[in-house]
Amino acid sequence: MLIIHADDFGASRAITDRILACHDEGRLDSTSVIPTGRAFDHAVGEKLKRPNLRLAIHLNLVEGRPLSPPSEIPLLVDGRGEFRLGFTGFWRLDRRFGRMGRADLRDQIKAELRRQIRRVAAALGADLPLYLDSHMHTHMTPPVFACLTELAAEFRFAYVRLPAEPFFWHLARPGDLRNYLGPNIAKHLLLNRLARRRRPVLGRLGIAANDYFIGVLYTGRMTAAALRAGLAAIGGRAGDTRGRDDAVVEALFHPGGAAPGEEAFFGSRKSLIEAYYSPNRNAEYQELLSPEMARIIAQYRGGWNARPSPASHHG
């Protein structure tokens, strides 16, 4: 089964409306809402009008302001009360601390994650199963993943994204080679390694996950052609017990770009603001609406022997 997914739902009204437009055109069936997003209420209200839009929680520990009072999570925020750590920052801090410091860090992570999960559950209905991913894949880091496994006893986690992306070559445009020489390839290798370790843990907890993921190598520059190349790599894995006929594949796009005047929504980190205003976001929006994308959706959704999907729970 192919799930076409967009992150950052609720980050701002403009981003949210672009994602909704892709869903309304039949090109996107899944998105994840940022519980701390400035347009959270708008996003949830619009989702409730669209019962076929699968909604996950985009846990956020890296951008903007938390739901927790900053005084309760001092290890996670800076003097402005904004999140201060990135993907590697959680890892470094966790390894640097002794046992007591590590326990404090994880208690603060759990406190913020608990508030975020509860906010979404309250908006959608506390009895619904919950689907999780995270901003910058931070749920894959050891301290954050450990917190999620502990929180699984409190909440009904039905699905957690695993960024398990097959390697594939796709060099169709000038500049595509940078995806294989820059930071994307390092992320690809690291996230695959972490996903392999996390999968059996989720299995023991009875939490489902996607079999494959597409969207790390081409993060920020996804195209329909790159998606097709990734899907072909999955389909060509003869003998793989998670091969094409019954695989659940989550493909990630970022079609939502921010509008002028929304800069303050994303905190004070320049790199994050630039990402939301990148022209690549509009390019990904156009890719989702392209005829090639329509052909991919028709081919892979119609031709795969789909098994029961997390999409059915929120529909």
Q: What class, by secondary structure content?
A: alpha/beta
Overall pLDDT metric: 89
Superfamily (CATH H level) name = Glycoside hydrolase/deacetylase
Q: What is the ordering of alpha helices and beta strands? A: EHEHEHHEHEHHEHEHHHH
**Secondary structure tally, helices:** 12
| Strands, total number | 7
Biggest sheet strand line-up: 5-4-3-2-1-7-6
For the terminal residues, how far apart are their CA atoms?
16 Å
Q: Provide the CATH architecture.
A: Alpha-Beta Barrel
- The gross shape turns out to be globular
- Regarding CATH, which class? Alpha Beta
- Provide the domain count: 1
Query: CATH fold name, please?
Result: TIM Barrel
> Nearest-angstrom radius of gyration?
19 Å
Low-confidence runs (pLDDT<50, min 5 residues)? 238-244, 303-315
Biggest β-sheet strands, sense, barrel: 7 strands, parallel
Helix percentage: 40-55%
Topology, element by element:
Blueprint lengths: L1 E8 L3 H12 L5 E4 L6 H9 L5 E6 L27 H10 L2 H26 L5 E5 L7 H10 L5 E4 L17 H4 L1 H23 L6 E3 L9 H12 L13 E5 L16 H7 L2 H10 L2 H13 L7 H4 L1
Parallel strand pairs: 1-2, 1-7, 2-3, 3-4, 4-5, 6-7
